[in-house]
Amino acid sequence: MTGIVTLTAAGAIDATYRVGALRRGTFTRAERYTREVSGKGVNVSAALAAGGADTAAVVVLGADDVRFARGGLTAPLLRIVEVPGSTRVNTSIIDAEGATTKVNAPTPPLSPEAWDATLSALRDELGTRPQPWLVISGSLPELAGTGTPVDLAAVRAAAREHGARVAVDTSGGALDALLADPTGIDLLTPNAEELSAAVGRPLRTLGDVVTAAREIVARGVTTVLASLGADGLVVVTADRAVFARAQAPSVANTAGAGDAALAGFLLGLTRGPAATAAGADPLAVAAASAAEWGAHAVAHASTIVAGPPHGIRALVETSPDLDRVLTAEGEA
């Protein structure tokens, strides 16, 4: 199976609190609490490893938390780039009804030396894997002293040097900058809100999403995997749109579901030749895998998925109803 390297330039410690109810301005004691090394790329690598893939997670972590990271379940996957101080903490508060409230700490700036070390670690991991995938995930830190995010040009150059295909899951200014020049991006994974912002208009139907995704494809991205929350997901290329949706057995924690879906998609894609040989549609296989892994993650209490999905089967439509109206935010 193809090797997959993830890059998390802004690693995090995920702190998850479970409460009976969350009321603004009052004292609440958590019923349960977990703490784990995270960041979107780490979450993706954890799911990939659970699915049997060869993966490594290049992640920037504060020195204060490295010992904790090396004692965790994901430790064998981590290629840690150590920087001074502590790692930012991203907090999830989950109430008895399964609603998740997230507060993410600001992303600290990265020194030029730390960014060079990150690039070196990335090249090392890509160099040990033939025809790898590179997944760039999460927030991008500011390069200290510049006032601008780290430049992904060197990351994309490393990918080209090692013949890696590139998937990107980011947002905000980093996504805007990427969309200005998306050449060489094989897979982009926006959610509906991010895709709407990218094209500058609301997306009310599945057809709206497909049209918007095709505009991104026209800029140079090969494939767009658009997550639609409770409505599922849709995979869009220049000439195809494949919809998939899977029912989660329960809702325990929505944080990390998109990361698991991306991992599931890549797991499905890397099995594409076998699917084709068996007479299956490889894009449909990848879409189904993404939906199943995403639903599986929602049923997990933590943001790290520990094993593959069992008993979850996606509904896949290779000619979806483009007039389907999307669920309004907050109505799922």
Automatic annotation (TrEMBL):
Span of domain Carbohydrate kinase PfkB: 14-295
InterPro entries: Carboh/pur_kinase_PfkB_CS, PfkB_dom, Ribokinase-like, Tagatose/fructose_Pkinase
A GO term for molecular function: ATP binding
Alphabetically ordered keywords of this record: ATP-binding, Kinase, Nucleotide-binding, Transferase
Any GO CC annotation of this UniProt entry: cytosol
Keyword Glycoprotein attributed: no
Keyword DNA-binding listed: no
Similarity field: Belongs to the carbohydrate kinase PfkB family.
Protein name: 1-phosphofructokinase
Gene source species: Microbacterium enclense
Organismal lineage: Bacteria, Bacillati, Actinomycetota, Actinomycetes, Micrococcales
